[in-house]
């Protein structure tokens, strides 16, 4: 083979590898066969052929058959190079739908790959509420250009959606509402609906408004279908629906959706005027994001990370908590430094001290996690009665755990180092550090909440800092008092 | 005052306190005023009176006005004593609905407070799918008694629902389906619906079945409403809906609900026969539970804990991870023990070693959390290509972080202890431990997944164990090689 032939073969193999991976993913997620799995055999053959022929055109045809959410998921699961290859194959008119489905981190990589022309074309197809979701990641003058292309109502909606914080109801609402008047008969409503080409997704209720657009009630589709068509809307509508205001906290709205099993709900302004609606699909996304950010925060990641992100991006996403950790570890190290003399006299202390600190951290994290969760679910008020009650309980748990586990490790230490005194110091230090962990595990989130701060953010780092430094201090301090 | 009077006064004050707390909660959660807040002023006065009069009867009336989910939430937010007081005030016929809404931990406390008669009465009001949710916590012979009280179809349904694992679709489905035939016109469907008194919650589609009960398609209500009533069901139904099998993984069903924005979906058996349906409200609960158990596992709690649980219950919920932690800490302690001589020669090592171990743990947890999440969302296959790619990336991130943060702390250590050698050992040990953390952060979840295990469970504990023992070994090992 000539060198050129070798090169060509390599390029072909690499393409085959990449296509193979795409197809493996399609298989794995049952996207090719469809969720019904009915035509599995039939499709599978086609896909294998596709790999062998390396027919990009066929892959493109496959992609066209997929739901935008499936394409989005496929893109998220592909390394950058392959992701952009697939992205190029997607038909331009589907770009917008798919951009709305992918995660923020992946969306960034896709947008970076599009030129202004493509981006504008994709954005032009979107509703005001979809545009609002995307606007943060578009160039500023493109947003202006897009705004000018909208009609007055859409522009107003986009502007209002952009004026709310990410965690407010206003940023989550959409504008796809079907409104009716209260004085018409259900028969008329049914005829009106039939004249519409289609109903917006998640339409489980129609919104009843007066001539000024003020919400008078809602007409659940369920009731519309089972009621006598001669009745009027006013007779069967629900007049006291669960409703939201645009500046309300989105997480509280999510709790209401969960609690009352809602599918959609109206959003009204201060004067009771209907301005939008919330739907369960946005709420589900919100719940998922909320729990993700909780997990990520606990692990010390600032935000969701594209698993195939560049090294540099990962470093940026992770440096903050590493730096915080470094500082707290340094403080703990200085605490140990105070007891240099004690340690050099009894070097066993150096080996035992991480146990005291570690168990304290673990136990403190148990307490603080439970309390932060209860607060997030609004199950815990910060009243004095509750604080005292929780303190009593957590201190009792800590006392039992300290005596039991401290006792176990104390006996081991006493036997191992042949020193009863060391064993006793170990038990006492463990118990005291667990008590400290319980105390701070209750007081830190309660205090943060009373100061109006978010108790979740950094609570775990704070408790670990306390139990590390505290654990070293208690253990080494007791040792120098009792054993020296 | 006589002693009896003092006692009476105390009892009264305690009751007042407790009622006050209940009312505070009612206020806080806007339950009293209703979410619309329209009649706030009016209601508020009433509630204050209620506290002063300590009128249990009025509190009872208030409770009767609340949605069962709100009562459930109130019960969850009350300490045991108050919780049982409120529980006694709830009308017996609402017991069942409320039991279904509370968390498992709180449900246990409520059931423990009911006698068999009350429990039976509450359970008799329930559907088969609701009973199935509750059955695990009822006495076994009561379940038998309840089964005998059901008609044949309900009994069969209950038996089948009980035969599935908690995380299977079969355990989540309900049986409230509206089925129609494909050969009738939409006009007939509309008339049929009107004859039903009401439609089940979350009915966004009707299920089209043949005479054997085999699913032929679904008729979305949206389409029913906008289509010509003279058309037949077969003409406008969707023939390839997203559907599930009862033995499928419920979490995968949840992902499909999220991805395709579903409100309800049919569940069919192997022969395509319709046996139940899934609805978004159950899916939302599942997503919430999934994310909760993830957070709780990370913090070392075995399951959701009633915040007002008894000390003994809390101890049981927490002992397992504490014991695991104790063992890994003990291993790390033995590693340090290997270097007794080195430490007694250079006691600064004892103060610096926790920094190396701590940063390694933090960094390893960042890596492993990201990978476990990507796996849970099916974004990451365990193929060799992906493992290598991730290893390359994570090792690069670790190298950068090690050199940067290791460099910072190395300089500090060199200055503090006036020893260039110590600084260099610090930098090298930090870098090596971060590389170890990255390596294990990728390999542990990938290996667990390839062995068919759940990578989430205990991953964080394993990585911390590795970075602790590894960090101590690397740092003290390097120190004894280079500085002694």
Q: Count all strands of chain A and give the number.
A: 5
So, the CATH homologous superfamily of the largest domain in chain A? SLC41 divalent cation transporters, integral membrane domain
Give the tally of structural domains of chain A: 3
Given the structure, what is the number of helices of chain A? 23
Q: Please give the alpha-carbon distance between the first and last residues of chain A.
A: 80 Å
Q: How are strands sequenced across the largest beta sheet of chain A? A: 1-2-3
Q: Oligomeric status of the shown chains?
A: homodimer
* Tertiary shape of chain A: globular
* Most extensive interface between two protein chains, with residue counts: A-B, 132 and 132 residues
Strand content of chain A: under 5%
Biggest beta sheet attributes of chain A: 3 strands, mixed
Radius of gyration of chain A: 30 Å
What's the CATH architecture of the largest domain in chain A?
A: Orthogonal Bundle
On the 0-100 scale, what is the average pLDDT of chain A?
Answer: 83
What do we call the CATH topology of the largest domain in chain A?
Tetracycline Repressor, domain 2
What are the secondary-structure elements of chain A, in order, as H or E? HHHHHHHHHHHHEHEEHHHEEHHHHHHH
Domain CBS (chains A, B): 237-293
Function (chains A, B): Acts as a magnesium transporter.
Main location (chains A, B): membrane
Family (chains A, B): Belongs to the SLC41A transporter family.
């Amino acid at each position: 083979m000539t060198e050129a032939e070798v090169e060509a073969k390599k390029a072909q193999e690499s393409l085959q590898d990449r296509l193979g991976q795409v197809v493996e993913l399609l298989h794995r997620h049952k996207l090719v066969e469809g969720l019904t799995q009915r035509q599995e055999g039939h499709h599978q053959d086609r896909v294998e052929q596709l790999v062998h022929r390396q027919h990009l055109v066929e892959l493109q045809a496959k992609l066209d058959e997929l739901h935008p959410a499936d394409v989005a998921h496929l893109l998220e699961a592909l390394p950058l190079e392959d992701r952009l290859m697939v992205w190029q194959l997607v038909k331009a008119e589907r770009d917008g739908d798919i951009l709305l489905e992918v995660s923020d981190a992946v969306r960034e990589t896709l947008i970076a790959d599009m030129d202004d022309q493509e981006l504008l074309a994709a954005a032009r197809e979107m509703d005001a509420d979809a545009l609002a979701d995307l606007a943060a990641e578009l160039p500023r003058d493109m947003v202006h250009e897009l705004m000018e292309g909208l009609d007055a109502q859409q522009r107003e909606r986009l502007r209002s959606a952009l004026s709310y914080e990410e965690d407010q109801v206003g940023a989550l609402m959409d504008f796809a509402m079907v409104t009716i008047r209260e004085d018409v008969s259900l028969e008329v409503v049914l005829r009106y609906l039939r004249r519409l080409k289609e109903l917006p997704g998640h339409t489980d209720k129609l919104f009843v408004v007066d001539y000024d657009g003020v919400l008078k009630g809602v007409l659940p589709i369920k009731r519309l279908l089972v009621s006598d068509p001669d009745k009027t809307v006013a007779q069967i509508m629900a007049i006291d629906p669960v409703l939201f205001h645009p500046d309300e906290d989105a997480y509280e709205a999510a709790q209401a959706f969960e609690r009352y099993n809602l599918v959609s709900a109206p959003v009204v302004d201060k004067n009771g005027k209907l301005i939008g609606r919330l739907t369960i699909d946005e709420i589900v996304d919100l719940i998922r994001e909320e729990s993700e950010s909780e997990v990520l925060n606990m692990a010390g990641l600032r935000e969701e990370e594209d698993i195939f992100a560049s090294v540099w991006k990962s470093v940026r996403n992770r440096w903050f908590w590493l730096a915080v950790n470094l500082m707290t570890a340094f403080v703990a190290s200085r605490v140990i430094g105070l007891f240099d003399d004690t340690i050099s006299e009894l070097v066993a202390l150096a080996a035992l001290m991480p146990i005291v600190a570690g168990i304290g951290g673990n136990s403190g994290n148990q307490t603080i996690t439970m309390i932060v969760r209860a607060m997030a679910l609004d199950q815990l008020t910060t009243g004095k009665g509750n604080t005292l009650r929780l303190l009593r309980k957590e201190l009792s748990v800590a006392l039992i755990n300290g005596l039991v586990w401290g006792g176990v490790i104390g006996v081991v230490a006493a036997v191992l180092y042949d020193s009863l005194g060391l064993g006793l110091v170990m038990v006492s230090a463990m118990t005291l550090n667990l008590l400290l962990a319980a105390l701070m595990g209750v007081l830190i989130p309660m205090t943060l909440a009373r100061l109006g701060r978010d108790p979740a953010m950094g609570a775990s780092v704070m408790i670990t800092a306390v139990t590390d430094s505290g654990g070293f201090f208690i253990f080494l301090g007791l040792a120098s008092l009792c054993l020296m």
